Structure formats: C-alpha cells, structure tokens
Amino acid sequence: MLPITVEEIVNVTNGELLCGDENALVSGATTNSKNVKTGDIFVPIIGERVDGHNFIDMAIELGAVATFTQEHSMNDIENLNDEIAYIKVDDCLKALQTVAAYVRGQYDIPIVGITGSVGKTTTKEMIAAALEHELSIMKTEGNMNSQIGVALMMFRLRDIYDGAVIEMGISEVNEMKNLTNIAKPTFAVVTNIGVAHISQFKTQDNICREKLSIVDSFTDMDDYEDGYEILRKQLEFANLTEYNILFLNGDDKILKKVRDYKKGIIDDCPLDDRTKDIIKRNKVITYGLSDDCDYKAENVVMKNGCGSFDVVIDDITYSVRLNALGEHNIYNALVALAVANSFGVSMDDAIKGVESYKSMSMRGEIIDVNGIKIIDDTYNASPDSMKSGINVLKNLDNIKRRIAVLGDMFELGDEAYNGHYSVGEHIANINKDAKEANKIDLLITVGELAGNIARGAADCGIEIQTFVNIKDASVYLKDIIRPGDGILVKGSRGMKMDLIVNDLKNK
C-alpha cells in the first residue's frame, strides 16, 4: 500500500541508489516538475524536445523526496542533494511503469479497463457514474490514458476505493500489452474498432488485435503465485459477483467476429492465439441495438439530440433517459449498466448514474449563444465520431438551419482520403433520407484534407464553403450565423477548431 519506500522502488526497478535515505516514503509520482507534491518521486522523461533531467532541482524544491535519473552516476555524487534519493535506472519511463505495476499489485480491487477507437473517455465517465452511486470509484483524470498517464494513475490508488475505471489509449503496436501489464484490468470494455491511428496499424484487423490484448491480464486464479491473489481477493469484494469479463460493442462489424468466435459460430477471428485462448475461457458480454446483444436498447427515441430507451435486465424492463447528446451515448449507457450489473450495483442506482451524466467540455457539449446552439465537439475527431456528431446535429430540435463546420482528421494514413470522403457521403445520405427539417443546410470545411468531405457531400445539393485556415472560416461563419442556427464544430485536436467556438461565443 502507498506510501512505499525508496528501497522498494530500487529493488523493483533493479536501480542503484546514488544517495539519499532508502527508508524515505514515496506517496506519489509525477513527470511534470510543476505538479510535484510533497512526498512524490519525480520521473524525468527524456522527450523529443525536453529533457526532464533539467527540472530535477525544481522538483526537489517543490517537495519531491526522490527522483529517478538515467544520466547521473556516482561521479556526480558531490553535486547531488544527498537529502534526496537519486535512483539510477536505465530508462526512466520503464522504471515508472515498473513501479506503477508494483503499486497496482498492492491493491485488491477490480479495475475496469476501457479501450476502443472512439468514445473511451465518455464511456469511462458513464461507467464511473453508474458505479459511484453505491461504490467509491477512482477514474482516469483528464487525458491520462497513455503510457505515462496510466502509470501515474496507479499512484493514485488508495484503500478508500472499491474499484477503478481506467481509460487505456494506444497509438503504436504493442502498447496495449504494456498498459495491461501496468493496470491489470479484471474487466475490459472495447467500444469499437475504427480507423484512428490506422497509419500506424495499417489495417482494422491489426487495430482489433492490439486493442483486444487488453484481456491479457485475465488470468485464472490458479495461475497466481502466493502473495499475489488479486482475483481471489476480489471475490470477497462486497458486491462483486463475477470477474474477467470482456464487454464488446455488439454492433461493431469487427468485434462481432470476436463475439462469433467466442460462441463457436466461426472458427477464427483477427486475434493472436493467446488472446483467443483467454476469450474462450472467460465471459463475453455484448451490448448494442442488435437483437443478439446481451444488453439491447429497445424503443429508442431521440429528442433534441438525446436518447431514451428501454433495456431488459434479468427479465425486468428499465427505462433510461439520457442527458448526453448522440446515439453513441446509448451504447455508452448500455455498457455502463452491464458493468454495474456485474459489480452488483442495483439497476435503479446505475440508471440514476448514467442519467446524471452530461457531455463534457469540448466533447459534444451544447452551448447556447444569442439564440444559436453550438455543439462543441472539438476535442478530437475520427470518421466515426464525426459521423456521430453530424447525427447529433441532425437530431437537434427547434433548429431553423443546421451548419456543420468540419476540420481535418489526422493520423489516418492511407485512409485519409476515404475517411474524409465517407463523412461527406454520410451528410449526403442524411440529406437524401431525412425530413426537410432535419437536413444539413450548410457544410463548412477547414483544411486541405477536409476538402474531401466537401467532395463526398457534393452531390446532395447542400451549400458548401471550403477554407484552408481557421481564421477565414471563423470570419465567414460569424458573418452569416443568425438566431435559430444549430452549429456543429469538430476536427482533430491539432486543428484547434475550439478557436472557432471561442469566436462564436464572443461574437
């Protein structure tokens, strides 16, 4: 349990204590010297532009009791602050991750790991909301879902928590295996398999293979060595009735293959042999709108962009009314209820939790400005999430004119053209099929790649304006908007589409 001693850290990392007290207690960790709290160990990561070793002195001044280093040696000992523990390691990031995994192993609590191409953060928030009415839950803060972020979250575990909900994001091959080794999730949620980061993975099957390795920590209790019995002790957890459950979006075309493999309907799926074996031996729960999903939303109604639906659980029908925009949040609510049910949380409390959730800033948040509804969905974008955002715009009530302001989507590699073009086709299909009042009236694209969105939408009679940069698009938009408009603003984070939202708010 935290705190842990410097000696433990040295032993776990096979490090070398250059100076300082081996009995000093470490209660947290950070890679940012500005965020140091008393009792932290500072982790000086060497990045492409910044070397964290340059900030060790600042970290010590702010209260760090220890620091890793991969640059100092015993020859530097005279220049070191011998009241602070300097721990020499080969690689500071790997040392952080090793200690994080060690810390995780000290806590006998279930962890829900969440991955997927789209919707991880919202799913994390909604699952936590469903659990928190009855349990004390730790959840990933902000965007701490990376190789560094997940490790740092482990240092925030405390005895007060009944469980944790951890977002796990990847962008490179073999990263999920590393994250799984750190967080050791005993429940896993896969939201979907899209094309985010496909430039690194090349195919969606490869993305599926990487993300599904999240179940690598699903180990039989008999495989655990004495002294490390997380799963065994979790069965003593107050309400926990099951463990080692994989929750899959049953409407995702690739995840369906995993489900069908589990059921024996097909003989193979895009996973490695170890992952397939783990899935064969453990429970898989699906959620979605399809009839064959374990948790199925029925009687779905979209009103003003928010969904309501019924779900049958243990032969009882429950009604759910969401306060979050978009059909995609129906999926998030379903898996939140499924996870809560596996934790033994009453459905009434779980539903209260998901119904209390509201869209986060820059993630589908609606802002009312002078009679104009702005959907701020500027945190990030992929083809799937952009289509979902357009659906939200379509379903807004009491809108006289619907305007989609869409920017470039990055990291699509060879799929960049098709990904953008498919968004335009989605708009075209909406305008061909929707009632007149729900059609998209104006498409504004920003950036060179987003011009392909315009090309995909060109045949549906929609008015289209294309811009290369944010400033010109914002000037145009401010000049033409009027009360009664509904405006979706979305693009990859690097496009800084939030600047358009800020301009509209200050109009």
Note down, in words, how this protein is organized.
The model is unreliable at 224-228 (pLDDT under 50). The protein has helices at 6-13, 56-61, 92-104, 120-132, 149-154, 175-183, 198-201, 204-212, 230-234, 255-263, 273-281, 328-342, 347-356, 383-395, 416-433, 451-457, 470-480, 498-505, and strands at 4-5, 16-19, 25-26, 28-30, 40-42, 66-69, 85-88, 111-115, 137-139, 163-167, 187-190, 245-249, 283-288, 295-303, 306-313, 316-325, 365-369, 372-377, 401-407, 442-446, 463-467, 485-490. The protein has three domains: 4-97, Udp-n-acetylmuramoylalanyl-d-glutamate--2,6- Diaminopimelate Ligase, Chain: A, domain 1, CATH 3.40.1390; 105-288, Mur-like, catalytic domain (UDP-N-acetylmuramoyl-L-alanine:D-glutamate ligase), CATH 3.40.1190.10; 365-505, Protein-Tyrosine Phosphatase, Chain A (Alpha-Beta Complex), CATH 3.90.190. It has a nine-stranded mixed β-sheet, with helices on both faces. The protein is an alpha/beta fold and 507 residues long.
